[in-house]
Q: What sequence folds into this?
């Protein structure tokens, strides 16, 4: 813990390590997890020393780029269907831009092997939709708990289990793409529940890649349903709304 504290995430930076500090408005309690976030322009002094974690930085930089390339292929399909140029989202998410906002996140949900009964009443991750355009989620077989509720409306009877499959990448549409599509593409509410009796109780690991437009990119749908807004201002608005809900 003392070594991880060196890389602690600052409130104004979307990079670094955090521990049980993300509170969802849907639950009002911290998610039972720790994470390490990689956002390329914000990584100054946030990489562990090569002697501590050999190859860590190089491997994750390559994995981040691999995820970006996959996300661009998927978003190019959406772009053409929405009436944009095929490379529209590629231009809006350039990795070389100082305003690059895509984030790779390593998540460790804590083991529940020695947990108390009351601990199982909380959530590993409360219900939410992602702020981004597209989330690519890497899961390990046997480490379930992810549930989704399609249609951008939470219903207690509509939650569906997402079972991890080897070699598959789970894709979630985010709020940014929903706005960009004039609500034709719906973002997906999802959550991570606690293990149930008879299920695996050990630590749960997942790696999401949040693909979101560069700060300077302007979000405006083909039909103009919403006024234009920069990706930076859009994310700020969403974060501020979450902060207000959390403190009501």
A:
């Amino acid at each position: 813990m003392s070594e991880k504290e060196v890389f602690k995430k600052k409130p104004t930076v979307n990079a670094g390590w955090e521990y049980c500090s993300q509170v969802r408005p849907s639950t009002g309690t911290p998610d039972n997890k720790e994470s390490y976030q990689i956002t390329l322009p914000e990584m100054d002094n946030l990489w562990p020393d090569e002697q501590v974690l050999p190859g860590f930085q190089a491997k994750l930089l390559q994995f981040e780029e691999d995820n970006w390339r996959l996300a661009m292929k998927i978003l190019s399909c959406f772009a053409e269907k929405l009436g944009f140029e095929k490379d529209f989202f590629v231009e809006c998410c350039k990795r070389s831009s100082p305003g690059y906002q895509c984030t790779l996140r390593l998540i460790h949900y804590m083991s529940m092997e020695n947990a108390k009964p009351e601990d199982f009443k909380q959530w590993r991750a409360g219900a939410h939709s992602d702020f981004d355009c597209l989330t690519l989620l890497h899961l390990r077989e046997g480490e379930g708990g992810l549930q989704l509720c399609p249609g951008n409306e939470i219903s207690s009877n509509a939650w569906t289990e997402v079972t991890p499959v080897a070699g598959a990448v789970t894709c979630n549409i985010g709020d940014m793409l929903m706005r960009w599509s004039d609500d034709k593409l719906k973002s997906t509410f999802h959550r991570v529940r606690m293990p149930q009796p008879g299920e695996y109780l050990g630590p749960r690991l997942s790696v999401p890649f949040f693909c979101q437009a560069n700060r300077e990119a302007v979000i405006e749908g083909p039909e103009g349903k919403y006024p234009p807004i920069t990706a930076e201002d859009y994310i700020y608005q969403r974060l501020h709304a979450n902060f207000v809900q959390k403190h009501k």
